[in-house]
Each structure stands twice: as structure tokens, then as C-alpha cells.
UniProtKB/TrEMBL annotation:
<dbReference type="GO" id="GO:0005886">
    <property type="term" value="C:plasma membrane"/>
</dbReference>
<keyword id="KW-0813">Transport</keyword>
<keyword id="KW-0547">Nucleotide-binding</keyword>
<dbReference type="InterPro" id="IPR051120">
    <property type="entry name" value="ABC_AA/LPS_Transport"/>
</dbReference>
<dbReference type="Pfam" id="PF12399">
    <property type="entry name" value="BCA_ABC_TP_C"/>
</dbReference>
<protein>
    <submittedName>
        <fullName>ABC-type branched-chain amino acid transport system, ATPase component</fullName>
    </submittedName>
</protein>
<keyword id="KW-1003">Cell membrane</keyword>
<dbReference type="InterPro" id="IPR003593">
    <property type="entry name" value="AAA+_ATPase"/>
</dbReference>
<feature type="domain" description="ABC transporter">
    <location>
        <begin position="14"/>
        <end position="262"/>
    </location>
</feature>
<keyword id="KW-0997">Cell inner membrane</keyword>
<dbReference type="GO" id="GO:0016887">
    <property type="term" value="F:ATP hydrolysis activity"/>
</dbReference>
<keyword id="KW-0067">ATP-binding</keyword>
<dbReference type="InterPro" id="IPR027417">
    <property type="entry name" value="P-loop_NTPase"/>
</dbReference>
<dbReference type="InterPro" id="IPR032823">
    <property type="entry name" value="BCA_ABC_TP_C"/>
</dbReference>
<dbReference type="InterPro" id="IPR003439">
    <property type="entry name" value="ABC_transporter-like_ATP-bd"/>
</dbReference>
<dbReference type="GO" id="GO:0005524">
    <property type="term" value="F:ATP binding"/>
</dbReference>
<dbReference type="Pfam" id="PF00005">
    <property type="entry name" value="ABC_tran"/>
</dbReference>
Amino acid sequence: MTEHSMTTSSNALLSLDHISLSFKGVNAITDISFAVRAGEICALIGPNGAGKSSLLNVINGVYQPQRGSVHFDGHAYRRMNPYHAAHSGIARTFQNIALFRRMSVLDNVLTGRNLHRRSTWLEQTLNVGRARSDETVQRSYAEVVIDALDLQRYRHTTVGTLPYGVQKRVELARALAAEPRLLLLDEPMAGMNADEKHVMAGYVLDANTQFGVTVVLIEHDIGVVMGLSDHVVVLDYGKKIADGAPAEVRSNPDVLAAYLGTRH
Ligand SMILES: Nc1ncnc2c1ncn2[C@@H]1O[C@H](COP(=O)(O)OP(=O)(O)OP(=O)(O)O)[C@@H](O)[C@H]1O
């Protein structure tokens, strides 16, 4: 048994317990269990179609598994929707950037603060009552995140005009602005060259250390994963084939076979 598979519910922020998910009889995830400790960076890896994105969608309530349950922050749930997930402290970025392209970086990051606003929609529209002080609080937190991710010079730039790598960073900033306890990142380095990946990995690490957020990320680049993660879970054809520290997983024969294609 690996150190990670022994993680108990007392020190796990997130645990998945025998999750199975199928689409019209086709199994996307089969009986997957693993735990993520508070404060760690956990990478989900595996070949295309292995079930990685589906698993993130189960964690934040987009998909509801036919079997199993998810435990987050001491609560068990099978049926959770993305709204409740966000309210309980789970934020998410997407494989294909999902930002407001015509809005500025600052306004996009501010949308991440919506859950923390205390004023009503009417007060915000009229800019009266609690809305003014609320706006000051939300903006100052947004600026903290913008500074941490070195986005200051793009603050007022329209997102759609920015290079792809910077847009991915804005998406990370918007998710962090929500002050999540758990950050789900679906291929945050997809489409980047080696230098850009290195830079982005640094920002993910900063998010983890400076903001104390636990991270579950999907990434295909094994070099990046090994350097960045504390814990790696490997999926293949919807099943978990390895779960442990990066060095342990890298030498696992099942993982080598899945990646070299000798198992099928
Ligand atoms: N909404 C859906 N409807 C039907 N089938 C789906 C749906 N979402 C995922 N699947 C199927 O579930 C399986 C797992 O897909 P998933 O996208 O989770 O894999 P992945 O590991 O994230 O792949 P990739 O690395 O290519 O993004 C695939 O066979 C996929 O076709």
C-alpha cells in the first residue's frame, strides 16, 4: 500500500470513494478511489480518453457518478452541483479557456470575487449602500492576485487580445480570486512551449504556496508533472493504475506500459 493510498479522511481535504461514471452504458470511470491531502499538488495523468476531465467534472459536480461518493472538507456528497461546489471552496479552470474575452483582465479576475460580495445586485448597479465598500474590498483582493501572478501590466487590457499563455494565467487568477481551498486545473499548460510551461508551473506552485490552496491538475507533460507534483494519480481506460509519489509512479511497470502502449 502506498503512502497516499493510506491517507485517512482526517488529513485528506478531498477523497474519492469508489467512483464509477458511465455515459449511456459506456464506462468513463470505473471504481476509482484516491485521496488528496490538504496543501498538496496532485496531478492526474493518463492517455487521451482515460477519464481525467470526467473525474474533475465529478469533483466539482458537473457530472454525477452512478456509484461512489466524494468527500470534501469533511462532507460526503454524491450529488453536488457546480454552484454548491464553488460555495464550498472548489474553483476550476478549463481545458479551453473560458474567460470573458471582451472584458479587461481586472474585470475577469473580479468575476472570481462574486461569491464574496456582500451587497445586492441592485446596490451594485446603483453603486449605493454596501456596494461602494464592497467594491473596494473585492478590488483590493483582485489586485493581490494580479500582483502574485505578475499580471499588473495587463490589468486594463482586453483579455481576447492577450497571448494564449497570458490568458491561461488570467484564468488561474480568476479561479484564485475566489479564495478556493481546492483548485482544479484542467491542462493549465496545454498548447504551451517548454519555456511557457516552466513559467506557468511556477505560478501554479506560487498559488499553492502563497495562497495555501490544494491543487488537482491534469497535465500531459510528464516532465512538468514530475517536477511540480507531490502526488500523481495515473488513469488508463477509466481505471486507476497507479497512485503515489512522482518517483514511485514513474518507475511503475503499469504506467510505463500504458505510456509506451505495450499493455493493450
Ligand atoms: N459528456 C460525455 N458524453 C459521452 N461520453 C463522454 C462525455 N465526457 C466524456 N466522455 C467519454 O468518457 C471517456 C473519458 O473522457 P475524458 O474526457 O474524461 O478523458 P480525458 O482523460 O480527460 O481525455 P483527454 O486527455 O483527451 O482530455 C471518453 O471515452 C469520452 O469519450
